[in-house]
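Input record (Table S2, row 353):
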Amino acid sequence: VSLVLGIESSCDETAAAVVADGHDVRSNVVWSQIEEHRRYGGVVPELASRSHVERIVPVTERALAEAGIDPADLDAVAVTARPGLVGCLLVGLVAAKTIAWRFGLPLVGVDHVSAHVHAAFMACGENAPPLPMLCLVASGGHTALYDVAAPGAIAPLGRTLDDAAGEAFDKAAAILGLPYPGGPSIEAAARAGGDPRAIDLPRPMLGPKSLDFSFSGLKTALLYHLRGNALRRPMPDLDERARADLAASFQEAVVQTLVRKLRRAVRHASEQGRERPRSLAIGGGVARNTRLREALAEDRELRDLELVLPPLSLCSDNAAMVAGLGDLLWRSGTTDDLSLPARPTSRRRGTTA
Ligand code: KG4
Ligand code: ZN
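Output record (zinc ion complex):
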């Protein structure tokens, strides 16, 4: 049995987890800072870093205790080193380096977005999905499509040119007067009887071939719907009913855009010189969305692909995915020394995790 401790602090979740054999999650502790950032309507970087400083030790201790593991029994320590808020990343890195140094363990720096992709393999345990796998990562900070040839071997196909899908939910929620984070509150408002066809919103596809995304116009379309072109006009008061309809329409526009892009990535595979995907996975906070999960499960055009919908706990930010990818990298001899730096952006757009 291999045992890897994962540490994640790239944004507003302080998380630690112990994973055995790369997929068996022995503990998965996540301390979310959502409440601290709510009144600002988004993550405040300096507050986030300070909060990580206070929580990183108790969170890590709890992950080890829940797994019943002594740090000396670990095989490696994996930590998110990129991308993310640099002050936040540094806190996790210092913790991971200290444990690695104190117990003489290999240190493995992990790319956060690659870890979101890797969660799909962890969700399948020993029954690996057929490859290649098409994977959508949609969160508050990232929205991208990947062609996944094997665990850890991912090639980007497209990404957002402006807002991430989760960011679009967060901004739309603010427009509608719904609480942060916007994804869950829009989903809840939509579920309260909202009509997804109540208003016409665009499905931004960026021309006939593109696999990139653009969500910023969607939020602007919602804003214009509410107060026309007169930006000085005050926002109308929305009753419960109207808010549910707008939330449902917005959610449907995002979901349909994501589904259409996935169909396009499958349809255009051979013409773009790729093997046709045989499985389809999603990851990131937006992958928790029930309507997105339903739409993918029901889609006729995608139904011959094996659909991987990881459990919700592996979709939003967590350290189990970091430990899982760390296990793979450690096995392949990809470790780092104590000079491993925090990088706010991904090191390479390239091929491997
Ligand atoms: O992956 P994540 O936890 O953190 C980042 O790396 O950003 O994703 C958080 C994002 C937020 O923008 C949030 O609004 C969105 O994921 N989100 C959702 C849902 N739950 C979280 N979006 C749509 N539907 C949801 N149920
Ligand atoms: Zn994330």
